[in-house]
From TrEMBL:
It holds the Pfam family ABC_tran. It comes from the Bacteria. This is Heme exporter protein A. It comes from Sphingobium scionense. Residues 6-203 form the ABC transporter domain. The keyword Nucleus does not apply. InterPro entries: AAA+_ATPase, ABC_transporter-like_ATP-bd, ABC_transptr_haem_export_CcmA, P-loop_NTPase.
Length: 205
């Protein structure tokens, strides 16, 4: 993971004909982290989705070195399957072995729930399952959208430990959060500073 890198240069995002943000720059090397903050609807999730390659780039560039995993509000797990098998679907796609999946379940204290169908999990347990998917993926770059939402204090501490471990081995983390979170010394991006002025917005129509 030591070659991981993420570079955003002059990044802008257009959604529904509206320029959400522009001019976002960020350079992260192995072990680096960033925290996106700002009010609801300002574009934090949109920026993470651009980094994951799921939303088009309106202007600027994203240069990624390494694989990417995104945890957002979408559960993306088969509700009818036991947790272990539902996560196994992603583990096969990510080409990671059973041991990696078991380590991720353990990291988020989900091992006792491995045989419980996803639909029976609580909100916080589902959130932990989404995070376990990212941990198991072995991806270099973790994109975490409000990762602490719905987690109790013990689970936030587990997530903090998983993030610290990931950074220690040269991973990269970009998180969007309203809460000061897990990351000890992130690059902070205040999204409000990147809201275009109305004249610029009008020129996008
Ligand atoms: N599919 C879409 N088409 C058009 N506009 C969208 C779409 N999805 C989201 N938006 C708009 O894009 C803006 C940014 O949304 P985004 O989810 O990125 O914000 P956010 O900063 O993550 O907000 P929150 O803190 O509430 O999670 C919002 O105004 C939202 O309504």
């Amino acid at each position: 993971m030591s070659g991981a890198a993420l570079r955003l240069s002059g990044l802008a995002c257009l959604r529904g004909g509206r320029l959400l943000f522009a001019g976002v720059d960020l350079v992260l090397a192995a072990g680096g982290s960033a925290l996106l903050h700002g009010p609801n609807g300002i574009g934090k999730s949109s920026l993470l989705r651009q980094c994951a390659g799921l939303l088009p780039i309106y202007a600027g560039t994203i240069d990624r070195q390494g694989s990417v995993a995104l945890a957002d509000e979408r559960l993306a797990l088969d509700m009818e399957l036991p947790l272990h098998r539902a996560l196994g679907f992603w583990a096969r796609l990510d080409r990671v072995d059973e041991a990696a999946l078991d380590r991720a379940l353990h990291a988020m204290a989900l091992a006792p729930l491995r045989d419980v169908p996803v639909r029976m999990l609580s909100t916080g347990q589902r959130k932990r399952a989404m995070l376990a998917r990212v941990i198991a993926s072995g991806a270099d770059i973790w994109l975490l959208d409000e990762p602490a939402n719905g987690l109790d204090d013990a689970s936030v501490a587990l997530l903090g430990a998983a993030v610290a471990d990931h950074l220690a081995v040269g991973g990269i983390v970009v998180a969007a959060s309203h809460q000061p979170l897990l990351l000890t010394d992130p690059v902070r991006i205040a999204m409000a500073a990147h809201v275009p002025d109305p004249a610029q917005e009008a020129s996008c129509d």
